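Here is one chain, start to finish.
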Amino acid sequence: MAKKSFEFDTRYSNVEQSLEERKNRIKTICFKTCSKCGETKYIFKFSLDKRNLDGRTNVCKACRSREGLNYYYQNQSKILIQGKEYRDNHKKNRNIYNEKYREDHKEQLKKNAKKWYKKNKKRIKKRNLKYYQENLEACQIRRGLWIEKNRERIREYNREYKRKHKILKAVIQEGGNE
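Its structure:
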């Protein structure tokens, strides 16, 4: 037996109506009360948690942050020791990961280093000057070794420098004679 068209209309309208009700329910949930501080706050002040019916945690982000800080300061030595143990036990894995990260993000790291250098130029020069003054003998020895290793390079640089300046002098003298 064929169904009549009005039966389809009522079923369709019921589904449509339930969808509309669901949308309205979702729109009205824009505030939530924190179970820690008791304040009513906007829903986006709570972290996502799909285990709860409304999809948010019961404690606001600010309270969770405070809890985390309190825990850290109360257990600081324990946390630092655990971190050191982890770093020591997983040194190879961390090195492999860091190497791969540096390869994959070479350009970005280069940009960051350049930006940091420009931002801290005075501080770097100050630090280097301080190191040079404190380790003057070692720096002079290192400089002497570099000069010995790179004699040919220095000679080539000096030849090029003299050649360029000879040309410049000639051009300047010609300009002055005219």
